[in-house]
Please model this.
Amino acid sequence: MSAASAPEVVLALVASAHLGFQATVTVLVYPALAGLADEPSWARAHESHSRRITPLVAVLYPALVLSGAWLVADGPGAAGWTALVGVTVAIGATAVSAAPTHGRLGRDGPTPALVRRLLLADRVRLAGAVVAAVGAVAVAL
Model:
């Protein structure tokens, strides 16, 4: 077995941190937020969530992109490509569905359809984060 290169180790660390973050959002944060959809405090809770989570997203997502790009430049094997697919799914679900849905929730308020869309996008993100972390750790071992 060969020693892992720096991009492999960095992606494994970043993808693992992202998985922990994403699992927390999926299991704790979004269910609590969705539970407030019928409450008068929704707007304040959603705005507070958005404000507080932005710094974490602003650190983790660029770190995923940069460490993934570094791995591509280094020449990933099969597990590396698996990790990169997971990263792409997680970021893609955020860009295509979760972020625009958050925007609509902030502007228009919660509807059952928007809350369901957000929760579905979040589950897709979690699946991507799992694939990314498993692939990245496999590459780094």
About this structure: The chain has one domain: 6-140. The mean pLDDT is 94. Residues 6-140 form one domain. Residues 16 and 138 are 12 Å apart (CA to CA).
